[in-house]
Design a protein that fits this description.
Structural class: mainly beta
Number of strands: 44
Radius of gyration: 43 Å
Largest sheet: 8 strands, mixed
CATH superfamily of one domain: Immunoglobulins
CATH topology of one domain: Immunoglobulin-like
Oligomer: single chain
């Protein structure tokens, strides 16, 4: 479309929109559906003959969607159409444009032209709001910043931020902690309303405990576990525990029965707590960071050692008023403080007691779900309460549907002690199922007690499907062995810049993502993140390699060239053979036309040969006997 047409469309927009020349603005969050309104309020165009939607890029109008007078609808051929104008709404004088999966690049000015008995032209300014973090995945203790981009930009808006639904004034996080992880929402208020764009922040480090305010209580003679669990994908190569005084912070030796484990769960255990083991315990780990550097994260917790005496309590008054509450199936959720509240004529009195439930502390019930990607390592938690050390621990695996017994994975390994957690070093496709941890131990009454806990392992992976030729579109699908708790999916593009800086960009919020043609810019890391009612449940990573496709293409083209050359040589040999046969055939046919001449020639040749032989014999006779008679 030339410059003259562009100026004519703008002039028509001024005429039909009035002398104020106000542009209609539409704000929309990235990834959602944008509706650009184009409604004929006067209903003057009852039967439109043509509808044109264009976008102003520089001084040029580029067609987005159009329907000509002959009823033909034009759509892009290469890319899947994201812009559509529902024809079913034309009868309502509604010619609005719908853009799905809006990106930040879609922002700008759009022109709607409707031709009928009269002509209507409207200009809509689409502004796309995107929330992001730079970087989006950060290690605790480092710096990250929340960004709210509006394309095209404007100053006539107010921007606020919410963290997990609560308003906050912080956008630059100078000392990131686990409490900063979660959903961050950019709230943009403008003259026509409010729009919100949400992004997620992942904080790598120590997931449990979340901060340095944790306190662990343990009785003398019991066993206690000091938690130190690292986030997924952050496996330390060195873990160190140290103990200091709670008052002077001077260094103290670790207890004699202190033992630590390695891996994602670097929790430590004191097999038998002694009087004097109290203090501040610090767990620190060194690991490779996202920028391939060395990063140190640590967490402090206080151990409080308790001891007490039991006294026999007698009740002389046998008649008392009591309300008995019976718990028939006690679980970890029943542990805690129980208060009896008695209201009488003169007021209210409360009496409080504590209930301790021995068994498996983590997980608390049988509803736990663990998500793990194919090829990764996963830990299945099974932590017993303090003072309850099992002498036998057994793990078994069953099907999630039929509950039939299944073998444990080949890389399955379990540990003993209060933390009887198991680890699958490398998760394979087919390792999903229900995993049950059961332990036999001596109870408080010296009997045998069996406690168990079930948890479900869901295996995640990214499947790739493409055409048989290998040059067509590629579809990446996020596959979970059980997706009953999944509410939404999101595809993220991870790119690396200078100094190994990482940028995570939200691409599409669907289960599958389609790439029309894989090029070098598509190579690299793609992440499928899945959400539940509680928020982010996990993600799975997929690497796209382009070099393999290029090599296969080159090898196939080389094979085709060799085949063509071989066929050409074969055809040349066949042609030469046929040509020689044709020459022989022509020669034979020519000779058969003159049989008498052939006989004459043959006789002349025979006589000439005989004369030559007789002449040679006479010459030999003259040389052997020289007599005068021979003159």
């Amino acid at each position: 479309m030339n410059k003259t047409h562009f100026l004519m469309v703008l002039g028509l927009a001024l005429v039909f929109e009035g002398s104020q020349c106000q542009e209609r603005e539409v704000f929309v969050a990235q990834g959602s559906v944008a509706v650009l309104p184009c409604v004929d309020e006067t209903s003057a165009i009852s039967h439109p003959t043509a509808v044109y939607w264009s976008r102003i890029v520089g001084n040029v109008l580029k067609t987005v969607w159009r329907r000509d007078k002959n009823g033909l609808e034009f759509r892009p051929v290469r890319d899947s159409p994201r812009a559509n104008c529902p024809i079913s709404n034309f009868g309502k004088s509604d010619y609005s444009l719908h853009i799905t999966e809006t990106t930040i690049e879609d922002g700008g000015k759009y022109v709607c032209e409707v031709e009928g008995k009269t002509q209507m032209v409207k200009v809509i300014n689409l502004r796309v709001v995107r929330a992001s973090f730079s970087p989006a995945i950060v290690v605790e203790g480092l710096i990250t910043e929340a960004k709210c981009d509006i394309s095209p930009g404007t100053h006539f808006v107010s921007i606020n931020w919410k963290q997990n639904g609560i308003f906050t004034s912080r956008t630059r996080l100078s000392d990131v902690s686990q409490r900063d992880a979660g959903h961050w929402t950019c709230r943009v208020a403008y003259n026509g309303g409010v729009v919100e764009a949400t992004t997620s922040l992942q904080v790598k480090g120590i997931a449990a405990p979340q901060d340095d305010s944790s306190v662990v209580y343990a009785a003398v003679g019991s066993s206690v576990s000091l938690p130190c669990v690292f986030t997924d994908g952050l496996i330390p190569y060195t873990v160190m525990w140290r103990r200091t005084s709670t008052t002077s912070y001077s260094s103290l030796p670790l207890p004699a029965s202190f033992s630590e484990s390695a891996g994602p769960s670097a929790s430590a255990t004191i097999q038998r707590v002694e009087d004097g083991d109290e203090g501040m315990y610090t767990c620190s780990g060194m690991m490779k960071g996202l920028n391939r550097g060395r990063i140190k994260v640590q967490r402090r917790m206080e151990l409080v050692v308790t001891r007490g005496e039991w006294n026999n309590i007698s009740r002389e008054d046998s008649e008392y008023c009591a309300n008995l509450t019976r718990l028939s199936d006690v679980s970890q959720r029943d542990a805690g403080h129980w208060t009896c509240r008695v209201a009488y004529n003169g007021g209210v009195v409360e009496a409080t007691t504590s209930l301790q439930v021995k068994g498996i502390a983590a997980p608390q019930d049988d509803s736990s779900v663990v998500y793990a990607a194919v090829g990764s390592s996963v830990s299945l938690p099974c932590v017993f309460t303090d003072g309850l050390i099992p002498y036998t621990v057994m793990w078994r695996r069953t099907s999630t549907t039929s509950y039939s017994s299944l073998p444990l994975p080949a890389s399955f390994s379990e540990s003993a002690g209060p933390s009887a957690s198991a680890t699958i070093q490398r998760v394979e496709d087919g390792d999903e199922g229900m995993y049950t941890c059961s332990g036999m131990m001596k109870g408080l009454n010296r009997g045998r007690i069996k406690v168990q806990r079930r948890m479900e392992l869901v295996v995640t992976r990214v499947s790739r499907s493409s055409s048989s030729s290998g040059n067509g579109p590629v579809t990446l699908t996020c596959h979970l062995s059980n997706s009953s708790q999944i509410t939404s999916y999101e595809w993220l593009r991870v790119t690396y810049g200078p100094n190994d800086t990482q940028t995570v960009t939200s691409v599409q919020k669907t289960k599958s993502y389609r790439i029309q043609e894989v090029t070098e810019k598509d190579a690299g890391e793609w992440v499928c993140r899945f959400y539940g009612k509680q928020g982010v449940l996990g993600n799975v990573t997929y690497q796209i390699h382009v070099m393999g496709a290029v090599k296969s293409g080159n090898s196939s083209s080389g094979n085709k060239t060799a085949m063509v050359m071989g066929l050409g040589f074969l055809f040349l040999v066949i042609f030469l053979i046929l040509f020689q046969m044709y020459r022989n055939y022509r020669r034979k046919k020519t000779i058969l036309l003159y049989p008498a001449m052939e006989t004459i020639v043959h006789q002349a040749a025979t006589e000439r040969e005989q004369r030559g032989r007789s002449g040679a014999k006479m010459a030999e006779a003259c040389v052997g006997d020289p007599k005068p008679v021979c003159v």
